TrEMBL record:
The chain crosses the membrane at residues 59-81, 122-142, 163-185, 191-212, 261-279. Residues 1-23, 230-253 are annotated as: Disordered. Residues 325-455 form the Oxidoreductase molybdopterin-binding domain. This is Sulfoxide reductase catalytic subunit YedY. GO terms for biological process: respiratory electron transport chain.
Length: 460
């Protein structure tokens, strides 16, 4: 057989051997990756050359990742607890319909009384504090976003999709969350629904990403002892060895700061944000330091100079609505009893010191006086209570009414408050009467109450 009749290596007499079409890197997929590589978008071919920081590498990226793996699940968990605090089984948590993401129903406890204050404070405060770490983590992997082609196999395509959902999800949650606590409703969509489902999308992507990358992250963390890096100054800072992910710059510049300095910068920014938000929980002069949370600042002095979430003007409640003609209607078992404010003041009064916490993250502790809710239930002969539906004078809004659980009605510190810190409620604080219940979200501590309907317990 001469050379011309010899089949090329890998071929058979029946013809050339063809690679399977369905496997990545072979047949059509292989040509597809090659076509992508030969036709990069403008600037993609030289993009990675612009990122020359010697600090970038698997170790620094993994350090930021560990911090986020501890902090972000806590933000997610406290967010879920806050959703439960709104009693979704009564249809008053938003979004109302979450499909198969529905959480197991249970009664939100009233003890400790600061429970919602803690969960919502951690959710908002820790979320803000982690923003610099999120941005630093994105900076550390920024060159990878300009890789071309973006993937060279089906497995890499799936990894890139999870990364897209991960990065897009966390940026969406941060942006919408920050706008919400600033009362800057620029969304064009329902914030509560988008934030809830966005959180689940992010967590699903996070789980997938951790499953794919955890081994490399652990290897990177073991490669450089943290103590040694914290003791290394700028002059001794060197790039990490080349890595398979291409995080290390191909032509790094001399270091302008050390990894220790980078960690100190990110940590310092996080501490600064924490300092600018912690005042939302502290009454008195410290509240002036809550510069990032305008609703959490001290609006004035005196016994009623603490923050409000929604003013009477914003709620459409006028002084004429709460004047001498105001009446509270109590309903139960087909009966209705009407009481004016003088009648409420003539009932047994109780005084409690309780926090009130808002969905935006701020909270305050004040001393409230009024009539116990369970005494009002007895006044209308409600019997066994399954829930209490409270309605407000508010003309519109998501929270102009709220349903309280049985344990919240029966709690000894649950009041229809008439006074605060020894003086009558002001109109903005809910005059002539408002609900105060331990560990209840502030928006469900309904102001300007006009009706309470005590509903019987169903089932055994």
């Amino acid at each position: 057989m001469n050379a011309q009749s010899t089949p090329p290596a890998g071929d058979s007499p029946a013809g050339p051997r063809r690679a399977p079409r369905g496997r990545p890197g072979y047949g059509f997929p292989r040509r597809w990756w090659a076509v992508l590589a030969e036709h990069p978008p403008p600037g993609a071919a030289t993009a990675n050359r612009r990122w020359r920081s010697p600090l970038r590498g698997p170790w620094l990226t993994s350090v930021f990742a560990v911090v986020l793996l501890v902090g972000l699940p806590l933000v997610f968990l406290t967010g879920l607890l806050d959703y439960v605090a709104y009693a979704p089984r009564f249809g008053q948590a938003y979004p109302r319909d979450v499909g198969w993401l529905r959480l197991p129903p249970f009664d939100w406890p009233t003890r400790p009384s600061w429970l919602f204050r803690l969960t919502q404070g951690v959710h908002v405060g820790l979320g803000i504090t982690l923003v610099p770490v999120v941005l630093a983590k994105l900076w550390s992997v920024l060159p990878k976003l300009f890789d071309w082609p973006p993937a060279r196999s089906v497995a890499q395509v799936l990894e890139r999709l999870s990364l897209l959902l991960l990065v897009g999800g966390i940026l969406f949650e941060i942006a919408t969350g920050l706008l919400d606590i600033q009362y800057a409703y620029l969304f064009g969509f329902d914030f509560y629904t988008a934030h809830y489902f966005g959180a689940w999308v992010f967590v699903a992507a996070l789980v997938a990403h951790v499953a794919l990358r955890s081994r490399r992250m652990l290897t990177a963390l073991r490669s450089r002892p943290l103590r040694r890096e914290l003791a290394t100054g700028r002059a001794a800072t060197r790039p990490e060895p080349p890595d398979p992910d291409g995080l290390v710059a191909a032509r790094p510049r001399p270091a302008t700061t050390s990894r220790r300095g980078a960690l100190a910068l990110v940590g310092g920014l996080s501490l600064l944000l924490a300092a600018l938000t912690v005042g939302q929980h502290l009454d008195g002069p410290w509240r002036r330091t809550a510069l990032l949370l305008p609703r959490g600042r001290q609006p004035g002095g005196g016994p009623t100079g603490f923050p409000v979430n929604r003013t009477a003007a914003a709620a459409g409640v006028q002084a004429a609505d709460t004047g001498p003609g105001w009446r509270l209607t109590l309903r139960a078992n087909g009966r209705a009893v009407t009481v004016d404010r003088a009648g409420l003041l003539a009932m047994a009064q109780h005084t409690v010191t309780l926090p009130i916490a808002c969905v935006e993250g701020w909270s305050t502790v004040q001393t409230w006086s009024g009539v116990r809710l369970r005494d009002l239930a007895a006044h209308v002969r409600a019997g066994r209570i399954g829930a209490a539906h409270v309605r407000s004078l508010e003309k519109a809004g998501l929270f102009r009414q709220a349903t309280l659980q049985a344990n919240q009605v029966h709690d000894a510190d649950a009041l229809l408050a008439l006074r605060v810190n020894g003086v009558d409620l002001t109109l903005d604080h809910g005059y002539p009467a408002r609900v105060i219940v331990p560990a209840l979200p502030g928006v469900h501590c309904t102001k300007w109450v006009t009706e309470i309907e005590f509903r019987g317990r169903t089932g055994g």
